[in-house]
Amino acid sequence: MHPLLYIIFAIIIFEALWDFFLGELNRKSWSDKVPKRLEDVYPQDKFQKQKEYRIANYRFGLFSSAVSTILILMVLWYQGFGWLHYTVENFIGHKYLQPLVYFGAIGLGSMILSLPFSIYSTFVIEERFGFNRTTKSTFITDLIKSLLLGALIGGLLLWLVVWFYHTAGSLFWLYAWGGLSLFMIFFSKFYTTLILPLFNKLTPLEEGELKSAIESMSRKAGFSLENVYVMDGSKRSTKANAFFSGFGENKRIVLFDTLINDLDKDEIVAVLAHEIGHYRLKHTIRGTILGILQTGITLFLLGWFINHPGISQALGVASPVFHVALLGFGLLYSPISAMAGLGMTILSRRQEYQADAFAAKYANASALQSALKKISATALNNPTPHPWFVFFNYSHPPLLKRLEALDSFTSVKPTIK
């Protein structure tokens, strides 16, 4: 066994234990009583249901995490990734096809192993608590579409990186960075026009009082509103959401139909003002830029270490092989990736506060508070998470913190221009 393999073991085990530690802290922080501020949306029986939902998901998460951790450790210990390489090599000699088949096999195997957990989560836990609306046919169709889309996009990007590796020498990471950056920009711009319609139906918001109120708010906020779409989120779940995507002429605001059903007009306008805030405050473009920079750093380190023989040897291959080393690098890079992800998580929480303040200025702070409470209660979200769990895992501030931050705006009238 190569010494690097023991480092990979240590990383995987530490991450699993750390997640368990944070999960236990969070579980023990669950309140037995409804926070006074949420009594209007969380009656005691519903709050108890929320706790049961949290417990069911927590126990299921522990089990699925333990199974996945044990499986990856077993595959590494018995050098299964090395065996897979030699198996692929025996059947396929083309240097560009080998990585595609290798990662395709890993991806397919991972999907097959995770499929029972996905089925249980959707059709047992979510069904038990009244969230699931996904039919078996929709589930199967989504699975097939995701596999084909992942194979197409993932395969093209992997082929691009492999091609640069074999043609650009030591600077392959720089060319790969340029190619992947262009893809990230393209994906950010066209996600709601090219990808999302493959899974959901998007319908322009019909004319009426709600659309007029949204248009009035967007003019006050200095936002050129071109497209507001309603998505059939109820096709899969009762949970509500809204999001902003794209930039330039392709920017879109998407409302789940469940959001329209659960909230009143002022609350919907406030939620959309929050989403517009992300765009007007340049959160969307900054997120894309930071993602590109993070990708550049990752690829630079990959270029530095990819030909180190120890990485391939740790996974059971005697001499350096690009796709095996790429997998090994991903496992070794995990702690750095986690730290970078933590930084993005902290930034995301800060941006959520900023978008809330924007919404309070151009819509109505009280309406946004009411909307946040309803959305959280409908989804049975945990209103009392542990601060450490929040710090490491929450991309959005906890509900009570957001409500407190909005209190300073509740006496301020919306800005009129």
From TrEMBL:
The portions of this protein that span the membrane are 6-23, 60-80, 100-125, 146-166, 172-191, 288-306, 326-347
According to the UniProt entry, the coiled-coil residues are: none
Q: Which Gene3D superfamilies match?
A: Metalloproteases ('zincins'), catalytic domain
The CAAX prenyl protease 1 N-terminal domain, residue ranges: 32-201
* Cofactor details (free text): Binds 1 zinc ion per subunit.
Known cofactor(s): Zn(2+)
| One term of GO molecular function | metalloendopeptidase activity
Full protein name: STE24 endopeptidase
Q: Which organism is it from?
A: Alkalitalea saponilacus
